[in-house]
TrEMBL record:
UniProt organism field: Cryptomonas curvata
The UniProt record lists the keyword Translocase: no
Transmembrane segments: 75-93, 100-118
Keyword terms, alphabetized: Membrane, Transmembrane, Transmembrane helix
Name of protein: Mannosyltransferase
Amino acid sequence: AAGLPGLTPYAFLLWAANHRPLGSWGDTSTLRGFMVHFLRKEYGTFQLYSGADKSSMQLVEATGHYLMYLAGDGLYLGVVPLGVGLAIALGSIRRRSSPAVVILGAWIFYLVVFHSLSNLPIHTQKIFLGIHMR
């Protein structure tokens, strides 16, 4: 029940489709059109880029860029708290009820899933690296 408010943008999308707004993202007035939009079928479900240019090393390359820019984006001030937090999290893994285990697991899950599915050709064009970083 707590997740229902997160679905309100999709309810609005169904309502707004009947008003035919300019610049809309496809016809969402029918269930088929809505599912095409929701599943991103024009781009590939769970894919960011519609082109075929995808590196087989996307996960490794994208995660490397993420870690490389992590320190600079935090003005190098976040490295120490990050290290302390990781040390505490790794030290508390023995206790299964530790919230640090959940947070660390969510972060690793995000890194693996997002960087494997983000099929932007970051190795060929810098603009795609900038988009990926955002």
